[in-house]
Every structure is written in C-alpha cells, then in structure tokens.
Design brief:
- With 278 residues, this protein is α/β, with parallel strands linked by helices.
- It has three domains: 54 residues, OB fold (Dihydrolipoamide Acetyltransferase, E2P), CATH 2.40.50; 136 residues, P-loop containing nucleotide triphosphate hydrolases (Rossmann fold, 3-Layer(aba) Sandwich); 53 residues, no CATH class.
- It contains eight helices and eleven strands.
- The strands form two sheets. Strands 8-7-6-9-11-10 form a six-stranded mixed sheet, with helices on both faces.
- α2 packs across α8.
- The structure holds guanosine-5'-triphosphate, magnesium ion and zinc ion.
- Magnesium ion (MG) binds next to α5.
- Zinc ion binds next to α7.
Length: 278
C-alpha cells in the first residue's frame, strides 16, 4: 500500500495517532524519525500497511509550551479569578505568539466569579489590548469563538485551572474532557490535562494542552521590543531598547498614558529576563 499524508493529533509514549480526512490511524515511528522528536500538529507521511511514520513535513512553527506545531492561532485562556488575572503572563504569551507568526486571542474565564471592582481593574487592560488590535472574548461567547476555529489550527494555552478544557467542553459537549476544581488552598489548578491532543471542531483543529506553572521564551533581549507591537517608535536612536535611553519615544508615550504603564513594566521585566545575545 502506498504512503499517505496525515496529521499527528496525539502522542502517547511510542504510539502516534494520525488523522487523515476522516480516518484515524495508530502508528509507530521509524527509528530515524523517532529521534527527530515528533510534535502534535506535525504533518507526516505514513505507511498505511506497516502503520509507521516515514517522514515529517516542514513545519510552519512550533512552540515549547504548549508543545504543538503548525499553529495558526493561540487562544490565551485567562482566568479573572483563581488563578489570578496576570497581564504579565498575557504579555509574555503575546511575545511568544508574535515571534512565531501566530495570531493571538485573549479569552477571559470566570468573570461570573468576580465583583464589579475587580471587573473594572481588568477592564483597563482589556480596553488597551483591544486598542492595539488584539481580539478579546469572554468564554461565554461560544459562537464567536467557534467561528475563529474554522479552517485553522488553534492551540489553547494558559495556567492550570484557567478553564481550557472547560471551554472546549462548552464548544462541543461530545468531547467530554476531564476538568477539575482549582485548589482553593494553593490558589491554582491541579494539572488535570496531561497531554496535548488535537480535536476536530467546526472544520478546524483545536489543541487542548496541559496548563503550566512556568513559561520559557527563547529570544534575545534586543528582540523583545519587536513583539511589543505598539512600541514601534520614533526614538532618537535606532537601536533604542526603551529602557533609559535619551530621546526615547516609548518612554514619552508611557508618560503621556498612550502606552499602558503596566504593559511597559511587563516589557522591562521580560527584557531583563532574556539573555543578552543569541
Ligand atoms: N465559575 C466558573 N468556573 C469555571 C469557568 N471556567 C472554568 N471553570 C472551572 O475551573 C476549574 C478548572 O477548569 P479546567 O477546564 O479543568 O482548567 P484547565 O485550564 O483545563 O486546567 P489544566 O488541565 O489543569 O491545565 C473547573 O472546576 C471549571 O469548572 C468559568 O468561566 N466560570
Ligand atoms: Mg485541562
Ligand atoms: Zn525608545
């Protein structure tokens, strides 16, 4: 039988699930491929009779957290309650998305659990993200979210307990994914989802992923500013990193309240965390 093309939708130890139009195949990988480290999202050539993966097709991109390749859109699932809302995490994920050519979306969860005052505080950030062109949805807007999945490969990301699996269950009740209450004691989730799986949904694919407790970013200090999309500026120096340079237009715009101060603080924090040169 000839070789066929398919998409890797789950990896469980040495077993790889591949989907192709409407069939699903359970495969193993040839030695050579096994060493190349396959990722969920990979387009592969597989041998239908041997049930082995023969080749990985070139990737458009790949992320470490979540461990997925060929992503079109990243849904940043953001809890407004427990776990606590964090603009720092959002800003870090925006850098990850933009540096990998992925369209980011912010999806808010648990707004039903916060009071007016807490909502007001978060609204300041949401208004700003919208202003710089990022789409923000409440997890109640199921139809709008569903539309965004069509013809795309979407990966979910967000802290453990943020509500990633819950959102997918709301979009498609047949998925029946396991969810778990957050630990009130530790104020975070319980790492319920253990592996990355792509689900077919509304003519697209969406990856439920394990939540995280830390994220790593692999770019140099000097690159961070490129992915704070609204920072493109007329600073005095072309190489300005917007930290304390003379004639920095970004710092001026922060003072003018044109750039949200917390966003700029997150920039400086991420800048400090990154290594000097690649
Ligand atoms: N009240 C309320 N609870 C929510 C909402 N979204 C999620 N939850 C609850 O939050 C808890 C955690 O949700 P999960 O869907 O398991 O979270 P997750 O992001 O998949 O977590 P991991 O798999 O551990 O990464 C569950 O008890 C959900 O019922 C929401 O919008 N409102
Ligand atoms: Mg989950
Ligand atoms: Zn500057």
């Amino acid at each position: 039988m000839e070789n066929k093309q398919g998409k890797l939708i789950n990896i469980n130890k040495d077993l790889y699930t591949i989907m192709n139009s409407n069939s699903v195949f359970l495969c193993t990988a040839r030695g050579k491929i096994r060493n190349e480290k396959l990722l969920v999202g990979d387009n592969v050539i597989f041998n239908e009779s041997n049930k082995t993966i023969e080749e990985i097709l070139p990737r458009k991109n790949s992320l470490i957290r979540p461990l997925v390749s060929n992503i079109d859109k990243l849904f940043i699932i953001t809890s407004t309650h427990i776990p606590k809302f964090s603009s720092y995490l959002i800003d870090k994920f925006l850098v990850i998305a933009f540096s990998n050519n992925i369209i980011p979306y912010i999806i808010l969860t648990k707004e039903d659990l916060i009071n007016k005052k807490e909502k007001q505080e978060i609204k300041k950030f949401i208004k700003y993200y919208k202003k710089i062109g990022i789409k923000v949805y409440s997890n109640k807007k199921i139809n709008k979210i569903k539309k965004e999945i069509k013809n795309n490969l979407v990966a979910l990301t967000g802290q453990t307990g943020a509500g990633k699996s819950t959102l997918l269950n709301k979009i498609d009740k047949n998925l029946n994914l396991e969810t778990n209450e957050v630990s009130m004691h530790l104020k975070r989730g319980k790492h319920t989802t253990r592996m990355v799986t792509l689900h077919k949904l509304n003519n697209g694919l969406i990856a439920d992923t394990p939540g995280f407790s830390s994220i790593e970013l692999n770019i140099s200090k000097e690159e961070v500013k490129k992915y704070f999309i609204e920072f493109q500026s007329k600073c005095k120096y072309k190489t300005c990193n917007h930290i304390n340079e003379d004639g920095c237009d970004v710092i001026k715009r922060v003072k003018n309240k044109e750039i949200l101060e917390e966003r700029y603080e997150n920039y400086k924090k991420i800048y400090e965390e990154m290594k000097n040169e690649r």
